[in-house]
Amino acid sequence: MSEMLPAIHGGHDAWRYTLMSGLIPAIPLILIRPLLPESPVWQQKRAAGTLKRPSLAALFAPEYRRTTVVTTILFACSYGIALGAIQHLPQIVPGMADVKTEAAAAKEHLKTAVVSQGKPEPTPKELAAAGRRIEDDAAATVQSWQETGGLIGRILLAAIAVYIVGRRALFRLFQIPSLLFVPLLFLWLGNSLGQPGNLGLIKWGVLLAGLFTVGQFSFWGNYLPRVYPVHLRGTGESFAANIGGRVLGTSAAWVTLTLSAATPPDPARIAWTAAAVAGTAALVGAIVTQWMPEPGKVDLPD
Predict the structure, then answer these.
(1) Which of 83, 85, 99, 145 minimizes the C-alpha distance to 272?
(2) How far apart are CA 22 and CA 61, in angstroms?
(3) 232, 59 in Cβ contact below 8 A?
(4) Among 95, 135, 209, 225, which residue's Cβ finds the most Cβ atoms within 10 Å?
């Protein structure tokens, strides 16, 4: 299918289309979101002139300080698992024995095909490109299993939230398995890269890792609006997501890359480092969760 598309700089690498596929869910949101009505409570308060203006300082008022600090840390820990481990799979998968064997076979096939046509032998650059296509395809396939697991995690959270009243218990239903499963998955991966026949297992493992991790992401949209008053809901969620998730949490990617740096890159070392980073983030999150406030049965005063 990629041959039907126009030429792009660097070639039709599989990771490019995997990345672009992430834009697909945003298209209906762009079209639908402007048509969504505002919150009836927000509209009522605004019309009555009782809606307070949000402020960053208000998030650290005594009654909201613990909520702000705890949710920011937990957001960072959830992102730390994803960015510190799961998102490094494209650098780890090419080191698997199955992928290496298939890449070597692709190079040999290219040599045979070219020679049989009476053409000069392929250059090292052409051979490397043939092997890299196999590696990129394998990484994209594994990544698609992770995305599928994330989708299942979102659906599962929505279904279970109906039956589990305690928000802390609901969050731990995804957090505790990630604490145990994700570090062990990457530790096993680092120790088994040289063993053939593991590609199928890693797909299922990554699916479960995506389920537990994305389930935590989906939790916050249900939780945060219930622990802040109306005028602070957007500000509180934005602070936790942006400062905790996108500033602190994404730094886990840098930590993994820095601690696993090697020339040439060592997939096993990346996997072991990812296991340590994900385990640390999950452990910190599991400890901090005990201070996560439970939402009250009534709305907070505005």
Answers:
(1) 85
(2) 38
(3) yes
(4) 209
For the entire predicted model, the pTM comes to: 0.82
- CA distance linking residue 186 with residue 91, whole number of Å: 12
Decide: 231 and 51 in contact? Cβ < 8 Å: yes
CATH of span 60-291: 1.20.1250.20
Is 84 strand, coil or helix?
helix
Six-digit token pair at 206?
């990554």
Burial pattern 35-56, b for ≥16 Cβ within 10 A else e, equals eeeeeeeeeebeeeeebeebee
- Compute mean pLDDT per 10 residues along the chain, 302 residues long, and list them: 56 59 71 72 66 81 93 94 92 91 86 77 82 88 91 91 87 94 95 88 94 90 85 88 91 93 91 96 95 74 54
* Dihedral Cα 215, 217, 223, 225, nearest 10 deg: -140
Dist. CA 86–CA 207, nearest whole Å = 10
Q: Return the residue matching tokens 């639908």.
A: 32
Residue type, 24: I
Nearest to 72 by CA among 254, 212, 234, 236: 236
Residue linked to tokens 């949490």: 249
Tokens of 129: 């490109």
